[in-house]
Amino acid sequence: MPSSSPTLQAKKRIVLVAHDNKKKDLLDWVRFNRLTLLEHDLMATGTTGRLIEDELGIDIERFMSGPLGGDQQIGAAIAEGKIDVMIFFWDPLEAQPHDPDVKALLRIAVVWNLPIACNRSTADFLISSPLLGEPYERQRPTHERYLDRTVEVD
Known about the structure:
Blueprint: E1 7-8, E2 13-18, H1 23-32, H2 34-37, E3 41-44, H3 46-56, E4 61-62, H4 70-79, E5 85-89, H5 99-111, E6 116-117, H6 120-127, E7 136-137, H7 144-147
Parallel strand pairs: 2-3, 2-5, 3-4, 5-6
Antiparallel strand pairs: 1-7
Helix pairs in contact: 1-3, 4-5
């Protein structure tokens, strides 16, 4: 398990995700924030990743498409400490075939205290934060109490 308070490097590992109805919004945001994003390591789910690669002209690490397991892959990478920031333009008004995976992904991101933006306004605030480009000690909750079966849970 990753340490409880890792220091994130100045160069962040950012994962970019968008539901179908939000891909255009994410691509517009990526285009506008191109110079800042190129200073970091980028990852994305299937189709979103291909669109971002085409937009930025770079190769990025790609997970599977969300409905095919990409959301779960990202959740695992978060738990393993391999992702520092998530930009997830999700569509709350459109039912998704993988809604349980989306909920699990958002839950694991919150559990691990990951900076998350789920809409353009929040993404704008996050990417413009001076903390994005410098080392940062992210506090994570300690889970030992729940993992140690000898400890009584209140």
